Automatic annotation (TrEMBL):
InterPro entries: Metal_Tscrpt_repr, Metal_Tscrpt_repr_sf. Belongs to the CsoR family. Pfam families: Trns_repr_metal. It comes from the Bacteria. The lineage of its organism: Bacteria, Bacillati, Actinomycetota, Actinomycetes, Pseudonocardiales. Signal peptide: none annotated. The keyword Lyase does not apply. CDD domains: CsoR-like_DUF156. This is Transcriptional regulator. Keywords: Copper.
Length: 93
């Protein structure tokens, strides 16, 4: 079971809001809105996705990684490596 399952509805609600922001960007381009206005909205959508991903990462660290660390062994190594790789991808984006 995914660590975020208890908050699944909240996560989906946030993603739907972000999806709405992206649809708004599409409309802005279709309507030939001013570039700076579009870029402002791109920044807002980017920040919303970053915030979402950081919250999901925090959830993963506090549940999956902590549980694996308690168990120890290979599973702990795998979970820490996965988390480290995810952090590296987020930092690069």
């Amino acid at each position: 079971m995914a660590s975020y399952s208890g908050d699944k509805d909240a996560y989906l609600k946030r993603l739907r809001r972000i999806e709405g922001q992206i649809r708004g960007l599409q409309r802005m381009v279709e309507e030939d809105k001013y570039c700076i206005d579009i870029l402002t909205q791109v920044s807002a959508a980017t920040k919303a996705l970053q915030s979402f991903s950081l919250e999901l990462l925090d959830e993963h660290l506090s549940t999956c990684v902590v549980d694996a660390a308690r168990t120890g062994g290979r599973e702990a190594e795998v979970k820490v490596r996965e988390a480290s790789d995810a952090i590296a991808r987020l930092v690069k984006s």
